[in-house]
Fold this sequence. Notes:
There is one protein chain. This protein is about 65% helix and about 0% strand. The chain is mainly alpha-helical. It starts with 18 loop residues before the first helix and ends in a 17-residue tail after the last helix.
Amino acid sequence: xxxxxxxxxxxxxxxxxxxxxxxxxxxxxxxxxxxxxxxxxxxxxxxxxxxxxxxxxxxxxxxxxxxxxxxxxxxxxxxxxxxxxxxxxxxxxxxxxxxxxxxxxxxxxxxxxxxxxxxxxxxxxxxxxxxxxxxxxxxxxxxxxxxxxxxxxxxxxxxxxxxxxxxxxxxxxxxxxxxxxxxxxxxxxxxxxxxxxxxxxxxxxxxxxxxxxxxxxxxxxxxxxxxxxxxxxxxxxxxxxxxxxx
Length: 246
C-alpha cells in the first residue's frame, strides 16, 4: 500500500494510541501466528499417519483464512473506491485499518508509515496461511484441481507476501521510500502518481489472489470425497462425498 504521510494518527509525533488500536493490532498479530502454528502442526501430524481430525482442522484453518482475506480485500476495495472519488488526494484507509496501523506503528514511532506496512504484511500472511492449509489437506490428492489452484495461490501469495516484507523492512530501516515492486524499488516519487500506482497494484494483486482462492475452494467442495479419502484408514469405494463443513 502507498505511503500515507497525511493520515491522522500515523505521524511520528503522535503522542498516544487508543487502547483499542493496540489490542486490535495485537489481536491481528496473534491471529496470524496462530494460523501458521496450526498449519505447521497439521502438516507434521499428517505425516505421522491418516487422521480425520487433521482433515477437519485443516478445513477450519482454510475457512478462517477466508474470513481474514474477506476483511483484507474489503480494505483494498474501499481504498480503490475512495481513489475513484479523490484521485489527487493522499491515500486513505478505513477507520479500523487506520486504528490497527496506529497500534502497529508504536513499534517505531519515528517511521510514519511503518504501522501501515506491518498491518498489510500481517494481513497477507493470514491469507497465505489459508492457502498453505489447502496444500496440507491435499497432500494425498496431488492430482486434484484443488491442489493445482492451491499451489498456484501459494506461489502468487508467497511472492506478494515477500513484496510486503520488503516494503516493511525498507521502511523500518529508514528508507525515504518503501522499496518493492509496487514502488519501482523506491524510484517512484511521492505524490498522486505513486499513490495511484500502489493502490491499484495491490488491489489487483489481492483480487487475483482471491479469485485463485475461490477456485481452490470451489474444487475442494467438488473433490471433497476424494480428498477426504486420503485421511481414512479404509477409503470409501466408490468415493463418497463428505460435506466440506463437516
